[in-house]
Amino acid sequence: MSLMHDKQDESVSRLIEEFLTARATRKPSPHTLAAYRRDLRTVATLAGETVTPPLPLDDLTVEALSPRVMRAAFARFAAARAVASVHRAWSTWNSFFTFLVAEAVVPGNPMPAVGRPRTPLPQPKPLRGEDTPEELLAAVAREDGRQRDPWPQRDLAVLALALCAGLRLSELLALRVGSVVGREGERRVDVAGKGGRPRAVPIEVGLERVLAEYLESRRRRFGARSVRPDSPLLVDRRGEALRRGGLQYLVESCYRRAGIGDRVPRGARLHALRHTFATRLAEDGASAAEIMRLLGHASLASSQTYIEVTAGQQRDAVRANRTNRALAALLPADER
């Protein structure tokens, strides 16, 4: 222990507040700071109940937080909580002990001796409904008289790049006119991927024509200089590069015009288009390695989730088949 701290200073509740004060310089949101405090105090309270004799949080000192005590406290904490909550609390406590080691309050961090659950991979959130992507594209391709300055060619190009090439929001914004390369019939789009991982995504004749018509409409609006190779590929109605908020608003407005807002998963508005691209790849037999390359995933596990979801959907469809249900009804109850 550091000679700079007396016994009172080594109380866990006091050190938690010191840690949170230090974290505040990183400008976390109030919600994040509250989550840190809740995870730290909850597990510390459980740790106090684990020691002999049991101690209330205000009397618990950091000396008592041995690997054995922390394992027992986290076992109780994990019993009634989701994996993601346990993982978040473990990470918070790991940061807390790293802070205490740096401050010379404790000689080491016990958290590596405490089991940490794996973070579950996020599940894909494609558009709901078998024909929803086609309905969306068809609706957006039509000029809407309610718009002050309709530009269906541009809107269709945005949706098609996400639905037919699986691009992320940041990747769409980073595209240049010159990102679309290759001979006719062999076109591809060069993508500046997440984490600095570039990739090339082949584009078929449909997307190729959509992009050509969009660029021609842009040339008519803003002149030939607007489609130079180094120009942003996606622009607003003034010819300026689309920004994050503008792109999100554009996609939301397309959903409204198509009347499919109720088929877009919550929390995955633009990303639902990318997830739809990946899910259909899996449905059509693409391997996890192929999906990984096309979507620019860092690990094969992320790509595998699309195949697993598709396999699960196929199983559900077979299970729901009326003939299978009728066959199962013929069996004795103990054999179903």
UniProtKB/TrEMBL annotation:
Membership in a protein family: Belongs to the 'phage' integrase family.
Pfam entry (one): Phage_integrase
Stretches assigned to the Core-binding (CB) domain: 10-101
GO MF annotations, alphabetized: DNA binding
Organism name: Micromonospora krabiensis
DNA-binding among keywords: yes
Entry keyword set: DNA integration, DNA recombination, DNA-binding
PROSITE patterns xrefs: CB, TYR_RECOMBINASE
Listed name of the protein: Site-specific recombinase XerD
